[in-house]
Design a protein that fits this description.
The protein has 249 residues and is α/β, with parallel strands linked by helices. It has a single domain (2-234), classed as Nucleoside phosphorylase domain (Rossmann fold, 3-Layer(aba) Sandwich). It is 27% helix and 25% strand. The protein has helices at residues 58-67, 125-137, 159-167, 177-186, 211-235, and strands at 2-7, 18-22, 29-34, 39-43, 70-81, 91-93, 96-100, 142-143, 147-151, 172-174, 190-200. The longest helix is centred in the last third of the chain and has 25 residues, at 211-235. The relative contact order is 0.23. It binds hypoxanthine. Residues 78-80, 151, 156-157, 173-175, 198-199, 201, 209, 214 line the site of hypoxanthine.
Length: 249
């Protein structure tokens, strides 16, 4: 069973290898394959980080990974913190999400089959546990759980929104994890997200938000994070408790 990394902001040159183009019903996808580790790599925002969060073709690359018989996906994401006790630099092994997106294709089941997928445990517990061990071994400062709120973007939130999302139970906010996690589960793939807090959310932050601070913080943690993510995918055992795909796609 193969593994894949979906690299977010600051992680799009994550893993070297040869490129491969895969055709899907949602359009072509360009992926990288590393022969040494046998891992696939997808830069979420495309080569050169050119695709904004609300225009990412999530269905195409999750479909492509499924077609390539990937079973394990580890994704990285830069996030804003909704809580003072989660400062920039902290890594969160997300275990829940709240979907606050508005206009993205968010399912493979949008034709004439009615499928309701269980989301009690949206993120793979096996991957989260192994990843926690690898992060700890490298001295990365992480929390083992947290709730990710996904906004539509590409703008950042207002301070009023940050207060509201925090009162809802969100810990961190980002613009990409939905529908990515949803599609992975619909395809029956084990998926985990390692979220790196790059800034305090608007209003908690002393100044205005700037994409440059996000990229800078990600580049500081990237070497250790790459090593932890790769090691996790290389040691993952066969079998998992995640539910299988509900129906043929
Ligand atoms: N809000 C939304 N997405 C983000 C943020 C944020 O503060 N930081 C990094 N991605």
């Amino acid at each position: 069973m193969a593994g894949a990394v979906i690299g977010g902001t600051g992680f799009h040159e994550g893993i070297a290898g040869v490129t491969r183009e895969v055709d899907t019903p949602y359009g072509p996808v360009q992926l990288w394959h590393d022969h040494t580790t046998q891992l696939w790599f997808v830069p979420r925002h495309g080569p050169g980080h050119r695709v904004p969060p609300h225009r990412v073709n999530y269905r195409a690359f999750i479909w492509a990974l499924w077609q390539l018989e990937v079973q394990w996906i580890l994704a990285t994401a830069a996030v804003g913190s909704l809580r003072r006790e989660l400062p920039p630099g902290r890594v969160v092994l997300v275990d829940q999400f709240i979907d606050w997106t508005r206009c993205r294709p968010h399912t493979f089941y949008d034709r004439d089959t009615v499928v309701h997928t269980d989301f009690t445990a949206p993120y793979c517990p096996t991957l989260r546990r192994l990843l926690g061990r690898q992060l700890a071994a490298r001295g990365l400062d992480f929390v083992p759980e947290g709730c990710y709120v996904c906004t539509e973007g590409p703008r950042y939130e207002t301070p009023a929104e940050v207060r509201a999302l925090s009162a809802w139970g969100g810990d961190v906010v980002g613009m990409t994890n939905v529908p990515e996690v949803v599609l992975a589960r619909e395809a029956g793939l084990c998926y985990a997200l390692v979220a790196v807090v790059t800034n305090y959310g608007a209003g908690l932050s002393p100044g205005r938000l700037d994409h440059r601070e996000v990229v800078e913080l990600m580049s500081r943690v990237r070497p250790e994070l790459t090593a932890a993510v790769t090691a996790t995918l290389c040691e993952v055992p066969p079998g998992c408790v995640c539910p299988p795909r509900a129906q043929n796609l």
